[in-house]
Amino acid sequence: MAPHTAAQPRPTDAPDPTPERRRAWLVTALIVTFMVINFADKSVFGLAAVPIMEELDLSNSTYGLISSSFYFLFSLSGLLVGFLSTRLSSRVLLFGMTLLWAVAQLPVLVVASVPTLLAGRILLGAAEGPAASMSMHALYKWFPPERRALPSALQIGGAALGTLIAAPLVTWLIEGYGWRSAYAVLAAVSAIWALGWWQIGHDGPYDHARSGPGAGKGDDPRLPYRRLLSTGTILGSISSAFGAEWALSLSHAWLPAYLRTELDMSAESTATTISVISGYGLLLLLAVSPVVDALKARGVSSRWSSGAAQSIAVCVAGCAMAAFPFIGSTVGRLVLIGLAFGTIAIAIPLHYMTAAEVVPTSQRGAVFGIVAGLGTLPGLVAPSLTGHLIDTAESPADGYTTAFLTAAAVMLVAGVLALTAIRPERDARRLGLDHGPADGAH
């Protein structure tokens, strides 16, 4: 979206006082930490896959089912909490979610079995379903639209950082003290963060401001959700999220097991590889966000600055996903694995940015919840499907290859659809929210 001109002032465009700026970045740091814990909690089951499967004698199909159970209530929870965000503060929502993360880690500490693993993963998924969208919503309350790219990248960067930190740390706990120790530590860390957020976190000054020329706190419109959800930008953002989530759910559930069983890596080498992939994703996020801000400052439309970036990232990752099972060289295969599972990091903050541009702020949390809820549906399918494919194929290697090719097809279709559909300026004008430059403006 083009910057606002002097002829179109807004009360919220005034420079923030220094204490408010400091609070904005303190909240950002807390939310980054929130995402680090979120992805550490999410990835612990995958990192402990081999010892858990050996101890409980799980088949690939059963393991895949437990992995997918994380998403049984994930999307529904994201939708419901998105609508709750119009009535409850971000302080309350994030506090409650994080306490539930701590509780969800406890069942397996009492009895390690398939039922307790299922119960813990289902509860954790329900509590984490709204995490990314609601923490982004909370973050946007502290920054105006033209300054959101870097905070957004840092928020999603927390996810990459979470995996980067969690992989070696959780693996060290698993190898040194047993896989249950990782669950206990993560429960404690989640509870500590919740207490800190309750003391510090509150909603920022951009809570009610609408992005758009001449919009003040009093003019924030409310539009029918049917109109909002039928725009190409929202549908394209969901498509982008869908393609990225298919790869993301595979990386959490099956990438550690694939590296250990198919590439014969040790637990430590597997953790290092996953950390490197996460670091690559984090670097991409930090590199792309200032570019997006700079392009918007120069008048490049959001369709091309943030819409095309996320779409192309999903397509590039899909091409790498299709290629790496057929590469004989271990180094070459690892490079393509990094591209397949790391490049999608770009898409995650950008689909929230594009969606935010066509939604009134008072409805943003609800729409973020819908985008997250529908965009994360692959998590309900991909891990379980992969386990079934491995068990029914002639060999595990053939099963993995079929699973990765399926993922590639989904990602390529999703990326192309997003590239075609995301046009924030056009859709904002049609909804009466903005009168910015045309989609093709540069």
Describe what you observe in this structure.
- With 442 residues, the protein is mostly helical.
- It has a single domain, classed as MFS general substrate transporter like domains (Growth Hormone, Chain: A).
- Helices cover 74% and strands 0% of the residues.
- The protein is built from 21 helices and no strands.
- It has helices spanning 18-47, 49-56, 60-69, 74-84, 90-104, 107-110, 114-128, 131-140, 149-177, 179-200, 225-229, 232-253, 255-261, 267-297, 302-323, 330-342, 347-356, 361-375, 378-392, 396-421, 424-430.
- Helix 15 packs antiparallel against helix 17.
- The radius of gyration is 21 Å and the shape is globular.
- The chain starts with 17 loop residues before the first helix and ends in a 12-residue tail after the last helix.
Task: Outline the secondary-structure elements.
Layout: H1 18-47, H2 49-56, H3 60-69, H4 74-84, H5 90-104, H6 107-110, H7 114-128, H8 131-140, H9 149-177, H10 179-200, H11 225-229, H12 232-253, H13 255-261, H14 267-297, H15 302-323, H16 330-342, H17 347-356, H18 361-375, H19 378-392, H20 396-421, H21 424-430
Helix pairs in contact: 1-8, 1-9, 1-10, 3-19, 4-7, 4-18, 5-7, 5-8, 5-10, 8-9, 8-18, 9-10, 9-14, 9-17, 12-15, 12-17, 12-18, 12-19, 12-20, 13-14, 14-16, 15-16, 15-17, 15-20, 19-20
